[in-house]
Inverse folding.
């Protein structure tokens, strides 16, 4: 459910309610034996990892490149391209080729930064298949 909402940089209310419910269940557990204490402590650590992973996923789904960094990246690219005009190349064709190659490389790097900064949408995004496989495996576990 949450994978679709992360496409828009949002959290799923349904998933948040399920996480809140899970935490409530853990707060009500009172282990009685040493074995139960050990299992409870380990499962509580795993629940913390689950919550942390979800928080990191939600943070990654937001537009995270601040405006000042975008300005610096684009401005730095333009300055580098402008700098190529100061090279003492006699052939205008060589100058144009060198400038075009550098501009292409800078454009490629900027595209990669933007594409990889949004892992849940765009050209380069993480498909939900892996998490769907885990969900199917969890749902196939028989309950007592």
């Amino acid at each position: 459910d949450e994978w679709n909402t992360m496409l828009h940089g949002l959290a799923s209310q349904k998933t948040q309610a399920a996480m809140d419910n899970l935490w409530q269940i853990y707060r009500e557990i009172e282990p009685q034996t040493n074995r139960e204490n050990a299992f409870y402590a380990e499962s509580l650590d795993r629940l913390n990892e689950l919550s942390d992973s979800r928080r990191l996923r939600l943070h990654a789904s937001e537009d995270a490149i601040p405006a000042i960094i975008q300005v610096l990246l684009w401005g730095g690219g333009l300055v580098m391209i402008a700098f190529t005009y100061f090279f003492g190349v006699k052939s205008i064709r060589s100058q144009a080729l060198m400038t075009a190659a550098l501009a292409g490389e800078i454009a490629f790097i900027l595209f990669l930064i933007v594409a990889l900064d949004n892992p849940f949408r765009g050209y380069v995004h993480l498909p939900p298949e892996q998490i769907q496989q885990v969900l199917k495996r969890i749902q196939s576990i028989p309950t007592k």
